[in-house]
Amino acid sequence: MAELSDPQITEAYQDVRSDKTDTNWLLIDYESDRSDTLKLTQTGTGGLAELREVLDDSRASYAYVRVQYSNDKESVREKFVLIVWIGPRCKLMRKAKISVHAADVKAVLRVYSFEVAAQEKDDINEDPIVLRLRKAGGASYDGV
Asked: Are 87 and 60 in contact (CB under 8 A)?
């Protein structure tokens, strides 16, 4: 099991979900290569583009992102996405634990539209994620 008792994780989660703050993502990392303790590493206001820049190719991380998009000219929607990042140079033993630890993370970061399993930074491009959100969102007046 992963250890997620850091109160900063819950605070950041609530901050990302809040309409009253500009914070739109959080990043959780392991304390060290051998630890199963997760801690809040960073938060930001620059969306998926900013998040992509801070991901480390040698680590496994978990991110929670608020994505804002327009489904048509009349509406703006906000949805939440969970990203499970396994960098291309992540150690094998860490990769092996991700599926079990991801379940623990989902118990804390529990409200999201879908999960993105990312192994390359291109897996976190905004356009395909917004397209998935539009399709999952139901009514579309733009033919998407």
From this structure: yes
